[in-house]
């Protein structure tokens, strides 16, 4: 059974890489249609990732646009050492990091972080990935647990950048440890260490909400 699943996963991975190679080849050839397909496929997840990485999410649209401009200009330097998705996320986090540094230097006095909302009283236990999962169709507008979402989003922005990136990539985006190491250009041990510390820091920030803290503890014990 496990062998069959391994073969299936390998076949799926090969299929994704083949699709990547075909898309990259068209992008390098200057295909506008291919670039449109790339934007259609990755715009929403990259936008969501960037919005979570910025002090002011209102800047996410401009930064996302900058990411695709950079991709268009540097696609010929992509040699397939990692997956296309991993490469795109690496660029997105780099651009978000640049924006955060700019914000720290120039806008700290202009923008304040919203205070956390009161915890939800329905008693439901939701893991982080369920609370913040990207549903593509306006997830913020359609979130059932709006107050809980706002609280977790605010807490994520309180985390140090290194911890937040690992938590978001693992818990929300679902990347494997090895992929996260590629995106962040660090070793596997560093990824696991940052994830452990990031989860702990997030639990402290959310300590007023028992259901979230319990969910974080349960999630951390199985990964």
Verbal overview:
The chain is mostly helical and 223 residues long. It folds into 2 domains: 1-111, RNA polymerase sigma factor, region 2, helix turn helix motif (Rna Polymerase Sigma Factor, Chain: A), CATH 1.10.1740; 121-223, Winged helix-like DNA-binding domain superfamily/Winged helix DNA-binding domain (Arc Repressor Mutant, subunit A), CATH 1.10.10.10. The chain is 71% helix and 0% strand. It has 11 helices and no strands. It has helices at 2-28, 32-53, 60-74, 84-106, 128-132, 139-142, 146-158, 161-172, 177-184, 188-205, 210-220. Helix 3 packs across helix 4, helix 4 (84-106) packs across helix 9 (177-184) and helix 10 runs antiparallel to helix 11 (210-220). The relative contact order is 0.10.
Care to give the gist of this entry?
With 223 residues, this protein is mainly α. It is 71% helix and 0% strand.
Helix content: over 70%
The radius of gyration is 18 Å
Q: Would you tell me the structural class of the helices and strands?
A: mainly alpha
The CATH class label of the largest domain is Mainly Alpha
Lay out the secondary structure.
Layout: H1 2-28, H2 32-53, H3 60-74, H4 84-106, H5 128-132, H6 139-142, H7 146-158, H8 161-172, H9 177-184, H10 188-205, H11 210-220
């Amino acid at each position: 059974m496990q062998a069959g699943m391994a073969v299936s996963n390998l076949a799926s991975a090969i299929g994704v890489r083949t699709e990547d190679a075909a898309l990259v080849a068209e992008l390098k050839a200057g295909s506008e249609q291919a670039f449109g397909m790339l934007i259609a496929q990755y715009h929403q997840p990259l936008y969501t990732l960037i919005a979570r990485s910025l002090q002011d999410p209102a800047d996410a649209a401009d930064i996302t646009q900058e990411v695709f401009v950079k991709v268009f200009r540097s696609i010929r330097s992509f040699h397939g050492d990692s997956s296309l998705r991993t490469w795109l996320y690496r660029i997105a986090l780099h651009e978000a990091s640049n924006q955060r540094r700019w914000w720290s230097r120039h806008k700290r006095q202009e923008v304040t972080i919203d205070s956390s909302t009161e915890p939800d009283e329905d008693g439901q236990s939701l893991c982080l990935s369920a609370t913040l999962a990207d549903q593509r169709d306006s997830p913020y507008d359609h979130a059932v647990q709006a107050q809980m979402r706002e609280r977790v989003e605010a807490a994520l922005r309180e985390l140090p950048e290194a911890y937040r990136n690992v938590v978001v990539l693992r818990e929300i985006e679902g990347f494997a440890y090895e992929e996260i190491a590629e995106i962040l250009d660090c070793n596997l041990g560093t990824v696991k260490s940052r994830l452990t510390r990031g989860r702990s820091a997030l639990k402290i920030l959310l300590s007023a909400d028992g259901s979230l803290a319990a969910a974080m503890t349960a999630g951390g014990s199985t990964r």
